[in-house]
Design brief:
This protein has 88 residues and is of the alpha+beta class. The protein contains one helix and seven strands; from the N terminus they run βββαββββ. The relative contact order is 0.24. The mean pLDDT is 92.
Length: 88
């Protein structure tokens, strides 16, 4: 998402026999609807298929997004990304 910065201290990646598991977090300016619209338009262009709101599938993997309003002095929006192997 343009203008967002990843918080690398919150990222985790595991390789398993059934695939990779990864979690990441980024935040930046905007609102939940704008961020959601960005991913709804962008992810299909990268080969991700919409399964439900904030859940996408591609080549045996599931990507889930947790989009939230941030409170405090800076405000903005945070996004949690979780990538897991799809169930057979």
């Amino acid at each position: 998402m343009p203008g967002f910065e990843e918080d690398t201290s919150l990222g985790v990646v595991f390789e398993t026999a059934s695939g990779r598991i990864a979690e990441a977090y980024a935040s930046g300016p905007g609102d939940v609807r704008g961020v959601s619209d960005f991913y709804t338009k962008t992810l299909p262009q990268l080969g991700w298929h919409v399964e439900s709101a904030a859940r996408y599938r591609r080549e045996g993997e599931i990507l889930s997004l947790d989009i939230m309003v941030l409170t405090g002095a800076t405000g903005g929006v945070g996004v949690g990304y979780r990538l897991v192997p799809a169930s057979p």
